[in-house]
Amino acid sequence: MTSSRRDQNRYYDRFKRDKGSKAFYRSTAWERAREQALIRDNHLCQHCIKRKRLTPADMVHHIKPLSEYPDLALVLENLLSLCNSCHNKEHGGRGEKVETSVATRRARFIVSRGNNEVF
Ligand SMILES: [Zn+2]
Ligand SMILES: [Zn+2]
Asked: What is the mean pLDDT of residues 1-14?
């Protein structure tokens, strides 16, 4: 059994040393984790959904910040799809621009992927 976990650790090490989240947000590993989170969340903002609003997610947020918990950087449970406005609130309005890497210019939203029953 190959351990993908060990592969991921290699990523963490590199990015920890890099100390930069920029490189991380450009990595394939992050692309994949982000995509998984979006699919799980139906590409919808998870805060808005709690208030019965359907807002397309603008980014995937790290519940525990990447800078403090690099080991959770790619853990699905630590990722949350959010819209810009909810994301700003999440960061106390200060806004962490780096995370805005979910293709801000995404032309179309993939809202339904056979998950129509969710609503
Ligand atoms: Zn929202
Ligand atoms: Zn965030």
From this structure: 58
